Structure formats: C-alpha cells, structure tokens
Amino acid sequence: MIRFGTSGWRAIIAEEFTVANVRRVAAAIGRHLIATGQARRGVFVGYDTRFMSDRFAHEVATTLAARGVPVVLSPTPIPTPAVAFAVVDGRRAAGINITASHNPPEYSGLKLSTSDGAPALPEVTRAIEQILAEEAAGGGTTAGGGPKSPGAAGADGVEARVRLLDTRASYFRQLLRLRRAPASPPGPAGAPGTSPARPGDRR
Hints:
With about 200 residues, the chain is α/β, with parallel strands linked by helices.
C-alpha cells in the first residue's frame, strides 16, 4: 500500500520504490490533475543526486506525457526549492521532485508540490492515495505492479512531448534578487513589534 507522508511518498529503492510503483504514482497524480481540471497547465519534474533519481524522474515525465499532461523535465539534479520556483514561475499545476530528503541513502521518494509551490496538502495526497487504491482493487495495474510503459512504437512520441528545461540560472537570479531586496523600514516608535525610541538610539 503506497502512502504519502509529509507532501510525498518515500520508500526503500528496489523494495517498494520501484520503476513500476513510480509509474503508478505518476499515473494517479495525472488522473487527479485531469479530474480537477488542472492538467493543461502542466507539471515540472526534477530530481536529486541519489541512485537512479534521473531514471525515476524520466519515468514520471513519460507516464504523465502519455496521459496528455504537458511535462517539463529538468536535465540536471536540482533542489526542491528550485522545483517550487519552476512551478510558480511557469504557472504550472504541480511539481514533482524525486528526492528522499533527509532519509538514509537506500531510500528514494517522490515529493509533490501544488500550483503555489508548497507541499501538497493532506486532502490532495489522500485523493491520490484513493486513486491508487481504486486502481489496485480494480486490477488496473500490470503484473509488474504498475501501468505499462509505452511500447517501442509509441515511446518516441511520448518522449517528444517531454520538454527539457534547465531552470538553475533563473532560480539563482531570483535568489540574488531576494538577497538584494531592501529591508523593510522600521515602524514608528511604539508600533507593534518595535520598542520605544530612547535617547542615543540609532534607527
């Protein structure tokens, strides 16, 4: 049974976190986005430097693309905040990052962000879990435990629908803009959060 924790699903690689299960989760996310009318805005997919993260991200991207969801895939590992930035900056429906965060190295994970770049709330992840449970109960998976990957005939078409985008430069520029932004001016003496002015104070 696949369960989401804090905004994502994490498991041990090759035990529960397999290519087949990653496809299942990606397909369920795609179904949720389609059902809620968000799919046309697309999804940004990123990944970290852990074992097979790039392969898992590719599986997520092609699974979504095969269902008609526009996908942008990072060609290089990026941190979760960069995925959140790409979602908000591109006005996308969601972001998916293949990362296990602070978990031990034998783990991998799938972190889902919503259109505001924030971690998916429990009501969103519960809806995705429900889709997974319904598919499992209805036999909607292959013998390998997940949706079938595109055959050789259809693989090229699906690949063509996945767009690569290196968002690092724009993400770093945004960080510099935030760093250089002027600090908020201090409030008047006696305002909430300030202390009364005293002789000799420099404000």
